[in-house]
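As promised in the previous annual report, we have extended the structural survey to additional targets. Below is the entry for F-box/LRR-repeat protein.
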Amino acid sequence: MMMMMEEEQVSCLSTCRVKVLEISGYGGTCKELKQMRHFLGKLKYLETVKISLQIEKNENYRQRVTNVLKKLPRLSSKCQIHFF
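The corresponding structure token record, generated without further manual editing, is:
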């Protein structure tokens, strides 16, 4: 039996017709970033991502987190990210 690498596995997200994804309490951890990368890379019908940031650190850190999220590749060309 041949094992597949994580990136090669088929994701059920690619067939989901999710248009809006809302995330609350985003803190900018490595695990959260990995999850965001997965969502943005698999949800091909995604149009809007609303992210509520829960970052206690200074404003510079908050700005870096938002910049990283904005630069993540997206499967959907219509996908817009909004922070609140």
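Confidence is low (pLDDT under 50) at residues 1-5. Helices lie at 30-42, 59-71. These points will be discussed at the next consortium meeting with the crystallography subgroup.
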